[in-house]
């Protein structure tokens, strides 16, 4: 039972990588998730690989209308 569970976990990882590639539609890589994993294992920094966004927060002002309905 233990080995079967580990096989299902491994299958789950592979299926999620395939679904990730299908959602991202990466033209540069055959399997995006496997390429990211390979870059991480080879010690390539994320700033060089460009796989992850460098800016994660957009700061902008929200404009409101001046008409106050009282």
Keywords:
mainly alpha, elongated, 70 residues, 53% helix
Write a structural description.
The protein is mainly alpha-helical. It has one domain. It has three helices and no strands. It has helices at residues 2-24, 32-41, 46-49. The radius of gyration is 21 Å and the shape is elongated.
Instruction: Please write the string of helix (H) and strand (E) elements.
Output: HHH
In total, the number of strands is 0
Q: Ranges with pLDDT <50 over ≥5 residues?
A: none
What number is the mean pLDDT?
A: 78
User: Share of helix among residues?
Assistant: 40-55%
Global morphology: elongated
Strand fraction:
under 5%
Structural class from helices and strands? Answer: mainly alpha
The number of distinct structural domains comes to 1
For the largest beta-sheet, the strand count, sense and barrel status come to: none
Briefly say what this structure is.
The protein is mostly helical and 70 residues long.
Strands, helices and their partners?
Elements lengths: L1 H23 L7 H10 L4 H4 L21
């Amino acid at each position: 039972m233990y080995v079967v569970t580990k096989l299902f976990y491994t299958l789950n990882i592979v299926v999620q990588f395939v679904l990730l590639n299908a959602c991202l539609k990466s033209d540069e890589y055959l399997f995006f998730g496997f390429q990211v994993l390979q870059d991480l294992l080879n010690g390539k920094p994320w700033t060089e690989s460009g796989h992850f966004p460098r800016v994660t927060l957009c700061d902008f002002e929200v404009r409101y209308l001046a008409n106050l309905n009282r």
